[in-house]
Design brief:
1 helix, rod-shaped, mainly alpha
């Protein structure tokens, strides 16, 4: 019985380590996606600014 209890404790510990590793990986993935969104947002702002300048030039402003 003691052997089964030890095995179950080991399984619980391994599951906890796996859950922590999975959460860490998910956090890194979210950070990576957040950086990509920031870069895309910067690109959208650049395009919008260029359009504003082009519109100003066409309307003589």
């Amino acid at each position: 019985m003691e052997l089964v209890k030890s095995f179950l404790d080991l399984c619980v510990s391994a599951t906890c380590v796996f859950a922590i590793a999975l959460a860490y990986q998910a956090t890194k993935e979210v950070e990576r996606v957040d950086k990509r969104i920031d870069r895309l947002s910067d690109k959208v702002n650049e395009v919008a600014d260029a359009r504003d300048v082009g519109a100003d030039d066409r309307h003589g402003e």
